[in-house]
Design brief:
- The structure is a single chain.
- This protein is an alpha/beta fold.
- Helix content is 29%, strand content 18%.
- The strands form two sheets. A six-stranded mixed beta sheet has the order 4-3-5-1-2-6, covered by helices on one side.
- The longest helix is centred in the C-terminal third of the chain and has 22 residues, at 244-265.
- The radius of gyration is 22 Å and the shape is elongated.
- The two termini are 36 Å apart.
């Protein structure tokens, strides 16, 4: 099978009476689904496609569908990096579906337009129960600084969770992980990149440091078996809210805090990115002056993390 396609096993968690009511064919309670990883907004597309191909035309609201992995709901904004080939994907309805005699659901698709995946539902599986899928073994969470990173190149041969929050501050990441309590129980590594957007804000550096302590202590208490890894902040060429010199002072102060205090408070590992400190070689940044280039910097950033994993 192509590397651009993932084969997912779909299992519906519905009452028998609901299956008869909304399914086109009651045999499709377990089946294989081929997910095209070249597409965007794949969780939403998966919901829409299932709605079209499995449910009767009377189901009006595809947004009532929930996608679950290991009994945890996958938010619509997640990328395909959360999926692995042959994963079990569970589907349920958040509420009683709205039914109508007229075909009202999925208005954006025209009748002459094919769904984004063709012939992607294959053989029906006959078994009533299916094997529980492998839980996540590593997590990479952070701001948009990590959006070009492939976690599978960092945590090789481990099932990886990945989330990049554009414009995210430390408080956003803390809120994100709290809403997924228990999601990382089996992760050996939880790697985080955060704090840069906080340093480029109207918050003082002590507030940023305290929020980082709150995040680290929460993760350490909830996942004591996991190894926490924090990345040092790298320089910027541009800022949005404060003077660049003030940002640089805050950045250095934050990195010093990571190395001198946080690693003791929360028993975590700190990743140094020494090559990025040479301000005469800031061509590793994109034209926005903030994010690292996928061409000549991502591999260095990844290697820095891997060096800590080996130590």
């Amino acid at each position: 099978m192509s590397n651009e396609v993932l084969r997912l096993k779909i299992q519906f968690l519905l009452e028998p009476c609901m299956i008869d009511l909304i399914f086109k064919d009651t045999n499709f309670t377990n089946f294989w689904y081929c997910l095209d990883t070249k597409k965007f907004e794949l969780v939403e597309q998966l919901k829409k496609d299932i709605c079209i191909k499995i449910f009767k035309n009377t189901l009006t609201d595809y947004k009532s569908i929930s996608i679950l992995i290991d009994n945890f709901e996958v938010p619509s904004f997640e990328s395909t990096r959360i999926f692995r080939d042959n994963d079990l994907i569970q589907i349920c309805l958040k509420a009683k579906p709205q039914l109508s005699k007229k075909r009202k659901f999925f208005e954006p698709l025209k009748e002459n337009k094919k769904p984004h995946l063709e012939e992607n539902i294959t053989e029906v599986t006959s078994e009533k129960t299916v094997q529980i899928v492998k839980p996540f073994e590593a997590a990479l969470i952070g701001t948009s600084m990590i959006k070009h990173l492939d976690p599978n190149k960092i945590f090789e041969n481990r099932k990886c969770f990945f989330k990049s929050i554009s414009g995210g501050r430390i408080s956003d990441i803390l809120e994100f992980v709290k809403k997924r309590e228990g999601f990382f129980d089996d992760c050996k590594f939880i790697c985080l990149t955060c704090g840069s957007n906080d340093c480029d804000s109207y918050n003082d550096i002590q507030t940023t440091i305290q929020r980082c302590i709150d995040l680290a202590t929460y993760l350490h208490s909830k996942y004591p078996k996991s190894i926490l890894i924090f990345n040092e902040l790298i320089p910027r060429l541009k800022t949005k809210y404060i003077d660049l010199d003030l940002f640089e002072k805050r950045r250095l102060c934050f990195n010093n805090f990571l190395n001198s205090s946080l690693k003791i408070i929360a028993s975590c590992q700190i990743v140094k990115h020494e090559e990025f400190e040479d301000k005469s070689k800031l061509d590793f940044l994109l034209s926005d002056g903030v994010h690292i280039s996928p061409n000549n910097a991502v591999s260095k950033y990844i290697q820095d993390i891997k060096n800590v994993l080996k130590s």
